[in-house]
Design goal:
The protein is mainly alpha-helical. The protein contains 12 helices and no strands. The longest helix is centred in the C-terminal third of the chain and has 28 residues.
Length: 280
């Protein structure tokens, strides 16, 4: 059995999850860093996946009208070809775009919970993917609205989402960067990124729920009450973060996040190199 989680750990990690899930800075990486830096342990991939249910619930609430409209259009389109509008297609884009992360997450689930959580890897991915985001911001035309999203866009952005299985990459960072490379506006890329995450993150959270109670050495052992509180905290803060990010990307570049990622990655490498924190 793993070490028991304290209430302070549950609350702090819930706050970290809510603050970082939707920003292109890697929530899983931040949870791993905060756990090691302050408590010399790892919250665990299962705890991370479960608390993501809170942030995904925030997506469901924030985009409730969009989700309902897309779902209705998708079902109607299945029955009537004449009703297959953009919302119908968007439903398929989300479904098909989820396939890559579903397949890779299943095939590499053991590595995601163990080797991928090495802090040297997290630090490297923070820096390397910061350069990817910077390139996307620089070279992306940022002209296409979400109404111009295509199946090709959905597949490519879905494939980019799968990279977030590696802590330090960032789910939103991967999908938004791919969207920018494809010419989408920042807001369009962010909106599709949020919608695309719903099936994958919800499935991962539910699948990891049993393991979160008994992580068997790969993470802290949280009680049901602690998981519930941490998830609720991540929901509230996540909702606020969504609203802030969608307003932010309209008038601000992704370079702000690039700078933060590089600084954090370099600081983490220094801490690792000097032995202040352990890599595993």
């Amino acid at each position: 059995m793993g070490e028991s989680m304290t209430w302070l750990q549950a609350i702090v990690l819930g706050i970290v999850q809510g603050l970082t899930e939707f920003l292109p800075i890697s929530s899983s990486g931040h949870l791993r860093i905060v756990s090691e830096l302050f408590w010399e342990t790892d919250a665990g991939a299962s705890f991370t996946a479960v608390t993501q249910l809170g942030t995904e619930a925030a997506v469901l609430v924030y985009f409730a009208r969009d989700i309902w409209r897309i779902a209705v259009a998708w079902f109607r389109g299945l029955l009537d070809r004449d009703l297959r509008d953009h919302d119908y297609k968007m439903g398929w884009y989300v479904i098909i775009g989820t396939i890559p992360v579903g397949i890779l997450g299943f095939l590499f689930k053991d590595q995601v919970r163990t080797a991928a959580r090495n802090l040297w890897l997290v630090a490297a991915m923070l820096i390397v993917f910061a350069l990817v985001i910077a390139a996307a911001e620089h070279f992306g035309r940022k002209q296409r609205p979400i109404e111009e999203l295509t199946l090709k866009d959905g597949i490519l952005m879905g494939s980019a989402q799968a990279l977030a299985l590696i802590p330090g990459v960032s789910r939103s960072g991967g999908t938004i960067s791919a969207g920018l490379f494809l010419g989408l506006t920042r807001e369009a890329a962010a909106r599709y990124s949020f919608l695309l995450a719903i099936p994958a993150v919800t499935a991962a959270g539910l699948f990891s729920l049993p393991d979160a109670f008994a992580p068997a050495g790969e993470g802290l052992n949280a009680s049901g009450a602690q998981l519930l509180v941490a998830t609720a905290i991540s929901f509230v803060i996540g909702y606020v973060t969504i609203a802030w990010l969608l307003r932010f990307v309209v008038n601000h570049s992704m370079y702000w996040f690039v700078g933060y990622r590089i600084i954090l990655g370099v600081v983490l490498m220094v801490l690792l190199g000097t032995g202040v924190v352990a890599a595993t």
